[in-house]
Amino acid sequence: MAHGNETITHRDGAQSLPATALDRPDLDRATRRGIPEVILADSKSADQVIAIARQFLASTGRALISRLPDAMLPQVVAALPEAESLRFPLSHALRLTLPGTPPPTSGGHIGIITAGTSDIPYADEARFIAEAMGCQVTCIFDVGVAGVHRLFDPLNALITNGADVAIVAAGMDGALPSLVAGLVPFPVIGLPTPIGYGMGGQGEGALLAMLQSCSPGLVVVNIGNGIGAGAVAALIANRVATVRHASPSDATAAPFVEVATN
């Protein structure tokens, strides 16, 4: 690494940028870490988002943009007409792909569950990154503890269909992740959302409840961190899928868990 106005050159020679550049996209992150870099748009100008996305398209054939303001969306899409765009309106995310770029596939399977409808935007952000990492995603929405009977049938289906990991998004009391973690034979990632008001509002109560869970197998990300939850879930699921595909005869199936409905 050099200083001043010299250049910084990646060890593979793929990229050289002036050391004074305002942005230095990590073009090799998906190869190095298994997690592609995501462009966080709501703290950037449209020109910055477009410039960074253009570099990712040129290098990898894809660009992932999160929290893209509605007013910025037409400008970004119009500036990159060579790319096919897939919008995730619930989470204000955008995936750009050059024609001919093969879709990522891993064989990993993630369940994404929300306590309420208000939690869906954060769950959808997790889906956005998990699908970009090649995972199959099954969504189960609005099955919180106020009507817990709604959870059992879709959760049984998720277990039966061989999910590798689950993300459970909840605000308010944040109780659903602990409940799910006590019922399933795979890891659960708690995603507290900033839904709620008064004492412990804006996700603080939900975060503390998840951190204080007595259900082993539950880990927790920060409030509203859908990208973080989806990325680590995809890492887990993709690792499981690699082992499953490499030695199917040696794989040990997870036990089936029947959730009582009466």
The major beta sheet can be summarized as: 5 strands, parallel
**Any idea of the CATH topology of the largest domain?**
Rossmann fold
String of helices and strands: EEHEHEHEEEHEHEHEHEH
Helix content: 25-40%
Into which percentage range does the β-strand content fall? 15-25%
What does this structure look like?
The chain is of the alpha/beta class and 262 residues long. The protein has two domains: 21-97, Translation Initiation Factor IF3 (2-Layer Sandwich); 109-246, Rossmann fold (3-Layer(aba) Sandwich). Helices cover 32% and strands 18% of the residues. It has helices at residues 29-33, 46-60, 73-79, 120-132, 152-160, 176-181, 204-211, 226-246; strands spanning 7-9, 16-18, 39-40, 62-66, 84-88, 93-97, 109-114, 136-140, 165-170, 188-192, 218-220. Strands 8-7-9-10-11 form a five-stranded parallel beta sheet, with helices on both faces. It has a four-stranded mixed beta sheet with strand order 3-4-6-5. The protein has a two-stranded antiparallel sheet with strand order 1-2. β5 and β6 (93-97) form a beta hairpin. α4 (120-132) packs across α8 (226-246). The protein is globular.
Jot down its keywords:
four-stranded mixed β-sheet; five-stranded parallel β-sheet; alpha/beta; 2 domains; 18% strand; 32% helix; Translation Initiation Factor IF3; disordered N terminus; 8 helices; Rossmann fold; 262 residues
Q: Helices, strands, pairings?
A:
Blueprint: E1 7-9, E2 16-18, H1 29-33, E3 39-40, H2 46-60, E4 62-66, H3 73-79, E5 84-88, E6 93-97, E7 109-114, H4 120-132, E8 136-140, H5 152-160, E9 165-170, H6 176-181, E10 188-192, H7 204-211, E11 218-220, H8 226-246
Parallel strand pairs: 3-4, 7-8, 7-9, 9-10, 10-11
Antiparallel strand pairs: 1-2, 4-6, 5-6
